[in-house]
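Supplementary Data S3. Sequence and structure tokens for construct A.
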Amino acid sequence: MMTSEYIASRTATASSDEAWISEWSLVRLAPNVVTDVTAITVPPSTLSPRECAALTQTLFFEMGFRFRNLVPEWFQARASRVDPSLVRVVVEDLQQLLAVEFLEWLGVISDVVTRIVPALSF
């Protein structure tokens, strides 16, 4: 998936400032389960870097990722020392990638037929 590839490329970046995303220790455990796209539509330019991290963690959770929660320890995390504009750029990139992934997932599940079967009575 493009999101996982983006995260891997950011993590492998030579510059420690650009590799701050590795602090999340992201692991994808499940497919996308987003039902509310509100977090995808919030403009990061209106948020502090810490709020951007919280927003992104919400998206990660809904998208089936396991991660290290950086928000409670924000001031100790390397990410807190990264240029705020870089944090916002990464968050915007992730929002776009996750939005595309969300739309693709909707396309996949829209073709799935569901049927409710009554419970067997004894």
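Construct B, processed identically:
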Amino acid sequence: MDGVNRRRFLELAAGTVGLAGTAHGATQGAFRFNRRMVFEDPDVLSDSYLNRIVLVTDKSEPDTGIPSVGGCGFDQPWPPEGVDVFQGLVVEWRNRDTARLFGTDRRVRAEKLVQRDLYVERRETPVEIGTPFVINNVVRCPDGLVGVEAGQIPGIRIETPSGNEEGAG
């Protein structure tokens, strides 16, 4: 990442996520709504995309290079004019407490992360910067792309390992 190391980037992003969780305290733990997203397949992560976190970190200007999201295997058609472009992180993580999806301790440890352009379904309510999503469905896409349906959830704090641990950082 140009000008910002991964640890600083995550600290800034995690701070935003923490504020979102506080603002939406009444809905903590519940999926607020789903979004369809497409991104380039990150080869450095494991093959299973279910339950990965996608963290929206910045809005990008739309360009003519938007991939054909209509070629992905989503149940409903997705026209190319219905796409917003964001920057984001795809995070492979583990939880400290496995009592439920995020446990009683809502912090997760980022094991690996990859920055990607995110092509996100445009809706009446826009995606806010700092919004975390959890992938709950994966569909096939052409040309090295991954299509996912992800549920927005507030209140996740993403941590990076200390300098003596392996993983992101």
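The first strand starts at residue 34 and ends at 40. The chain has one domain: 6-159.
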